[in-house]
Amino acid sequence: MAAFGLAGAQAGDARAGRQKLTTCQGCHGLDGLSKNPEAPNLAGQIENYLVRSLAAYKSGERKNESMNIVAKDLSDEDIADVAAYYASIQVDVLPP
Amino acid sequence: MAAFGLAGAQAGDARAGRQKLTTCQGCHGLDGLSKNPEAPNLAGQIENYLVRSLAAYKSGERKNESMNIVAKDLSDEDIADVAAYYASIQVDVLPP
């Protein structure tokens, strides 16, 4: 899934991603639910969208003070793994 | 909720937002679940995050070919209402 639209992108490893959440979880949670009103929920998010977002934060194309700092240190593998982890969280939706 | 961090922002009306989803639903669904691999899920997303994202797409600060076109025509009220609608969708999360 992580390879959608990203030439050469590798498939992420959700279990490895789970071990790399030290920084992410403060705002996005281990459960993918936002812990502050500035941070989005990531639980069950589309994997490709997460990979593209992290890559855009890393390159600076997408601007956010916290995320530009955090993403700068992530390798392509880290990005794929963390995206795979959050995407793997199952979500049930109850429309209003 | 929509007012977090946005001076002067108005609270959105989820029921009004539901009536304004004609364009959104093709990619993000009425249920807030992505209908294509380029589009994120929006179900239960943090309202303030949705408002800021739409405002950034409208201003061009955040780049996405589809979203820059779509957001250009949204008023502040439209943005608040659509954000309130997607945020109002209840989501249950089952961590792996």
What does it look like?
2 copies of one chain form a homodimer. Chain A has 5 helices and 1 strand. Chain A has 96 residues and is mainly alpha-helical. Residues 1-8 of chain A have low confidence and may be disordered. Chain A has one domain: Cytochrome Bc1 Complex, Chain D, domain 2 (Orthogonal Bundle). The longest helix of chain A has 13 residues, at 47-59. Chain A has helices spanning 14-18, 25-28, 47-59, 65-72, 76-88; one strand at 90-94. The A-B interface holds A 1, 4-5, 14, 18, 30-34, 37-41, 43-46, 48-49, 61-63, 85, 88-96 and B 1, 4-5, 14, 18, 30-34, 37-41, 43-46, 48-49, 61-63, 85, 88-96. Chains A, B: InterPro entries: Cyt_c-like_dom, Cyt_c-like_dom_sf, Cytochrome_c_Oxidase_Subunit. Chains A, B: This is Cytochrome c. Chains A, B: It comes from Microvirga terrestris.
Task: Report the radius of gyration of chain A as a whole number of Å.
Answer: 13 Å
Beta-strand percent range of chain A: 5-15%
How many helical elements of chain A? 5
Uncertain segments of chain A are 1-8
User: What is the assembly state of the chains in this entry?
Assistant: homodimer
Count of folded domains of chain A: 1
Determine the most extensive contact between two protein chains.
A-B, 34 and 34 residues
Query: How widely separated are the two ends of chain A?
Result: 29 Å
User: SSE string of chain A, helix = H, strand = E?
Assistant: HHHHHE
DSSP, total strands of chain A: 1
CATH classification class of chain A: Mainly Alpha
On the 0-100 scale, what is the average pLDDT of chain A? 90
User: Based on the structure given, which CATH architecture of chain A is correct?
Assistant: Orthogonal Bundle
